[in-house]
Amino acid sequence: MTVLKEIPEKWFPIILPQQRKKHKGLDGGKSKKNRAEEERRVRANDREYNEKFQYASNCIMTSKYNVITFLPVNLFEQFQEVANTYFLFLLILQLIPQISSLSWFTTIVPLALVLSITAVKDATDDYFRHKSDNQVNNRQSQVLIRGSLQHEKWMNVRVGDIIKLENNQFVSADLLLLSSSEPHGLCYIETAELDGETNMKVRQSVSVTCELGDPNNLASFDGEVVCEPPNNKLDRFCGTLHWRGRRYGLTNQNMLLRGCVLRNTEACYGLVIFAGPDTKLMQNSGRTKFKRTSIDRLMNTLVLWIFGFLVCMGVILAVGNAVWEGEVGSLFQSYLPWEPPVDNFLFSAFLSFWSYVIILNTVVPISLYVSVEVIRLGHSYFINWDQQMFCAQCNTAAEARTTTLNEELGQVEYIFSDKTGTLTQNIMTFNKCSINGKTYGEVTEPLGPQPKRLDFTPFNPLADPSFCFYDDALLESVKVGESLTHEFFRLLSLCHTVMSEEKSEGELLYKAQSPDEGALVTAARSFGFVFRSRTPGTITTTEMGRPVTYTLLAILDFNNIRKRMSVIVRNPEGRIRLYCKGADTVLLERLQPCNQELINITSDHLNEYAADGLRTLALAYRDLSEDQWEAWSESHRCADKATDCREDRLAAAYEHIEQDMMLLGATAIEDKLQEGVPETIAVLSLANIKIWVLTGDKQETAVNIGYSCKMLTDDMTEVFIISGHTVQSVRQELRRARERMIAVSRGRDGGKEGWGEARCADNGCKGGQGGDAGGGEKQLQCSAPPPSSFMDSISGEFALVVNGHSLAHALEADMEAEFVSTACACKAVICCRVTPLQKAQVVELIKKHRNAVTLAIGDGANDVSMIKSAHIGVGISGQEGIQAVLASDYSFAQFRFLQRLLLVHGRWSYLRMCRFLCYFFYKNFAFTMVHFWFGFFCGFSAQTVYDQYFITLYNIVFTSLPVLAMGIFDQDVPDRRSLEYPKLYEPGQLNLLFNKRQFFICIAQGIYTSVVLFFVPCIILSDATQSTGVPLADYQTFAVATATALVIVVSVQIALDTGFWTVFNHVFVWGSLGSYFTIMFALHSQSLFGIFPNQFHFVGSAQSTLLQPVVWLTIALATAICVVPVLAVRFLKLDLKPQLSDTVRHTQLVRQKKRKPAGCGVGGAWRGTGSASEGRLGARGGSRRSGYAFAHQEGFGELITSGKNMRLSSLALATFASRHSSSWIDTLRRKKQGPGPPSAPEEGGPAPSVPPLSNSSSVLGGSQDAPLEEEAARNTQPDPAPSQIAPAPASDSGGAAPAGSAQEAGAGPLGAATARCHGGDAPGGWMLTLGSVQVSCLYMEPCDRSSALTPASSSLPQEEGRRGPHRRGHRVGRTLCRHGNHPAKLKAGGSYQADTTHTK
Fold first, then answer.
1. Are 709 and 681 in contact (CB under 8 A)?
2. Is 1225 exposed, middle or buried (0-12, 13-18, 19+ CB in 10 A)?
3. Which positions does UniProt annotate for ATP binding (predicted)?
């Protein structure tokens, strides 16, 4: 391979870490295959030259097998399972006649069945991978071959080919853009498959090739590209183009990456640089990993233990055989001689050992693994068939793409989620604004009629028909001609980098680099200030029906440091004005001092908008004189032409002119969340699942969405921001955060610190870097972080926001422990500016340090590596392609379905699998250990207790179907209760239902049962006789009695273990019992014996044995001795230490008895959540959080002013859909780590106790039935667990309760009602509990408007926006009330009644 003598220094960061996989070369040269690619040389239109380097073809392959390799590779993988190897070993033993007491078919048939089922499943999965690969590889592409364009499949494209792309086509490989149909070689792409962003990005060809638009010219192009080797860095590319003796630098702006889609560009041509597995998309895909559940890993360990136990039993019985043969057996040699080759008692013991290994192998029968696969398949079909996870909008059902991970869905502790397209729809809508101190958009009247959507058409024919706004006051202000209102919308129509296309008169299509800008320009358009077109030097608008053309003097473009953008324009009258919009945190400090009063009012409005989860911007302007403009223009020109420090010089010039501005107002934009996202996150949080958002967005956007979707709330104790740029500063910020957590936790536990307001702090100090802010905080003396167990015990709700550059340092090896210790103590973590590879690294970090089950969910190709790294990968089939779905284990259409996937299907799958395994080990130990006890009575001769056909059929026929029915259909509580009580999910996280302790309990019960089943019949039948006086103490009678007792006992046991009976359970349990008697009588019949006299030795045994009353009494006694202790233990446990599921089941039974006939939907958590579109996102207060989210890079400003982008194509960006409504919890129930704030005590008496809310609080209440607590309180039975049910609702009475009534209200069996104190009754104000939501109003002012809670029909209470004009500032719970929302009293039947009683 030809390489440069010296590798360019700029490529070191990319080349040095590369560990590339080798692809098969064409000539098989070993020297080339063994050497890593150090640089890439590509010559255009020269396949012969490029083939020398053996570059990878454009064919991709994600499948694991082909026709030749399937059988050997799949068998090799299957025999890596300990159990399969174990059964193969047993099969070999059974083929040796000297040691085998059982026929070989008892093992080979089940083993072949297991291997076949697994192979078919693996083949099916791989077939779909092949099908997907073929679909991609066979896409058509136009390749320039010998001067003409020819259609070729993607898989046949080679490095060095020139291909043509047309509008809306996917880019087939990583291309160097050569030319485009747009002016100056520009083209527009959508990179949703790469980074999840749906906004357009611009790419431009090198100037020397941009005119090569004709195929004839391109056919003669022979330029050579020397560039970096393949790597996974999506945001950088370094290379050089050599052509006609000159060199041209290449950057990422010249590249079109595979997975992008060409938009708004008629056609373009590109040179293939990287193909197939070398493309950056595939380099970021990560390797397909074989995922196994924790139960699988535990079962492998248990199989080894059981095998050890089996060896021990074999050794014991072999020693017994040696002793017996030496002491007793020698006396029988004359008529019972040893069979050859046995010639002494030691060799007899050796053979006896292997015989017992074969006989006792059923402690782990191979049918276990067959049953596990069948159960998992059934669970997968339940997910696929779930109508409540079907999205009618996109006609997409949920899909379980794997069958091996279902029970792990019930054990998830960490969820890693993408943001754009996963939590949000990435659709922005103009929602509210503040102009000259007056706010517009607040139109929701909780008790009044819903407002109507404004019709802009009569006022403005050019208005966007999809634009929604409801406040007619703003429209009236525009109509009457208020100057500042006009100036506000004039700014929005001029200060942007949007490009417009007008196909026909009035039909405008805006192409915005950011959906934020599109929303603002669309709002200005609808209110009469229509942006029509632009040139490099002008902007043409239509203002109130009058065309106006402004001279564009300069664009001061946006970047992430400035957080603002400005334009300088000259109006037709010749006046020069600067318009600026940006983050309020940077813009308000650049205003004239005379704006102070307006700043205060606008700041209040910004706080309110931010509290509603909206993305805010501030708007300002400045008039410039000609002299000021000329002077600044000259300084700007010098800075623009500077060869060194150009960016810094431009920033200084921008800073100079953007001063002394006048404030106009502010805007509020809503980034639409997907339906049900806040409720889903709230409920998952109550299930003790920690949610991390890993997004490529900037910090402000991510934090805003965090508040909107209730990941971050004002109830949180503190939100820490990690923004250090060095390892040391990041370490320092993480330590400060931990110190603060520990200090707050200690203060809270000691009662020294009450509920604090939520605040967003840079780690407790200003700036977050360089020592203590005030010197008051004490640094941790040791470098090592506190133990994870200590951090886990911290009480309080904290959140962590980490910037991308800080995360890069936090992921370094010496920082991992610090980062994990801090982050895992937080309830929510948001990582911003994260690359696809970093997403996978964060997931791997948690898997490595926390030993917790992780789930990753995303919808774009940038999430593939994260999805593959997590224990469970979930793909959302959204608008960003299908790459995430193809790489996922489960897929569905909307994020909200994740709640049902985990809390219902996941919890049920885990519960069913655990119950199945416990019962399976129990029944097999009960079955097998009888052989062990029998060995002591048969001279250790390896004689079996049962007939060999019973041994063969026990696990295949007699006991297989009942346990399968339980494993597939069982439930402890209905799906609705699983959603209402998220705490039911916690046993899976703690792995309580099946672990080593539970395993030993199961085998102990099995061993106890085997003792009873052997010794009870042995003792009774040894002295029993038939009615004719014939003794019953014979081997065949004993075998039939024991086998019958065994089948009856295990059938009764599974009947006790089954919590949810279906038709299948009844048929399988009682049908299996009936099949035992049918098959047994058939096998013991005279007819079969007559046909096969050497195979059926128990002729007539069943008939003669089961006719004896003493035999049935023996079976009944053995059954009672086995079952009664189990029943006693379970009743005692239920009475003394009930589980939460027991309590929920109890209340469910009460509900069923007292249920009213009124029909109530069982449609799940999401029916009835829709409301008027003006329902605001959850209230939050605190510091203002800017939502300035234009692009992640420089804007289009430089391109606009250069005139390179003025010819526009025929397609536009996505239109803005009408805003949707979102509902969620107003106040989340806090998980009580310790005792909460006490209720106000009554005079002369103790305070009424309030049970903790963390165990069983009904979150998704809203059934039309009476609440569980109220129903249970009517029951006369004692409460199984008073502390596990949420407090009952408060009384309906509007007046103050008497002193004694509080205790009476709390005296119900299943919960204590909280006391209400009014006026002088108690200093604590009043407290009210609504199911799961506990709100304390500590200080209130009178309110002149009643608040109301929307009745919840299978949904959470919705917040209705600002309730009334009362002053913000009084406390509701731990949060200052800013919206006037007050709780309501819950009436019987589930309806809400407004509560207007307030005390100061």
1. yes
2. buried
3. 418-420, 517, 558, 581, 615, 695-697, 833, 839, 862-863
Annotated active-site residue in 278, 418, 471, 612? 418
Residue 833 is assigned to a ligand binding site: yes
859 known member of a binding site = yes
- In angstroms, the CA 785 to CA 736 distance is 11
419, 762, 708, 609: which is closest to 1186 by C-alpha? Answer: 609
Cβ atoms of residues 665 and 602 within 8 Å: yes
838: closest CA among 1044, 700, 696?
Answer: 696
Ligand-binding annotation for 1009, yes or no, is no
Query: What secondary structure does DSSP assign to 771-808, as a single string?
Result: S-SSS-SPPPSSSSPPPHHHHHT--S-EEEEE-HHHHH
Mean pLDDT of 22-49: 63
pLDDT for residue 105: 66
Provide the 8-state DSSP code for 645.
S
Residue 418 is labelled as binding a ligand = yes
Using DSSP, state whether 655 is helix, strand or coil. Answer: helix
CB burial string 1041-1058: b at 16+ within 10 A, e below: bbbbbbbbbbbbbbbebb
Report pLDDT for 387: 92
H or E segment and range at residue 858? strand 853-858
Question: Could you tell me the strand order of the sheet in which 200-204 lies?
Answer: 200-204, 186-190, 261-263
Residue 646 has pLDDT above 80, yes or no: no
Q: Are 1185 and 712 in contact (CB under 8 A)?
A: no
Nearest to 1258 by CA among 1144, 1360, 1152: 1144
Q: Which residues contact 388 (CB under 8 A, 6 or more apart)?
A: 900, 1163, 1164, 1166
Half-sphere exposure of 1355 (CA within 13 A, CB side): 23
CA-CA distance, 1212 to 1355, in Å (whole number)? 38
Alpha-carbon distance of 432 to 1187, in angstroms, equals 13
Establish whether 164 is an annotated binding residue. Answer: no
Amino acid letter, 366:
I
Backbone conformation region of residue 666, classed left if phi is above 0, alpha if psi is from -120 to 50, else beta: beta
State the average pLDDT over residues 635-663: 86
Could you count the other beta carbons within 10 Å of the beta carbon of residue 151?
9
Please state, in angstroms and rounded to a whole number, the distance separating the CA atoms of residues 373 and 114. Answer: 9
Distance separating alpha carbons of residues 566 and 930, to the nearest angstrom: 87
pTM of the model: 0.67
- Contact between 420 and 197 (Cβ < 8 Å): yes
Burial class (CB in 10 A: 0-12, 13-18, 19+), 503: exposed
Question: Peptide bond preceding 341: is omega within 30 degrees of 0, i.e. cis?
Answer: yes
Residue 532 annotated as binding? no
**Which amino acid belongs to residue 345?**
F
Residue 1094: pLDDT over 60: yes
Residue range 828-870, pLDDT digits in tens: 899 987 888 888 999 999 998 888 999 999 887 778 889 988 9
558 is known to lie in a ligand binding site: yes
The C-alpha atoms of residue 24 and residue 8 are separated, in whole angstroms, by 27
Is 420 marked as binding a ligand?
Answer: yes
DSSP 1192: S
Task: Kindly report, residue by residue over 1282-1319, the tens digit of the pLDDT.
Answer: 333 333 333 333 333 333 333 333 333 333 333 333 33
Residue 696 among known ligand-binding residues:
yes
Judge whether 839 is annotated as a binding position: yes
Cα distance between residue 666 and residue 437, in whole Å: 9
Q: How far apart are CA 852 and CA 856, in angstroms?
A: 13
The annotation status of 739 as a binding-site residue, yes or no, is no
Question: How far apart (Å, rounded) are the C-alpha atoms in residues 971 and 1141?
Answer: 10
Decide if 418 is catalytic: yes
Q: Which amino acid is at 982?
A: P
1221 sits in the region (left: phi over 0; alpha: psi -120 to 50; else beta) called: beta
Q: What is the DSSP letter of 242?
A: E
The values of phi and psi at residue 141, to 5°, are: -140, 150
Report how far Cα 904 is from the mean position of its chain's Cα atoms.
15
Single-letter residue type at 940: F
Residue 906's contacts (CB-CB under 8 Å, 6 or more residues apart) are 406, 407, 408, 409, 410, 411, 412, 985, 988
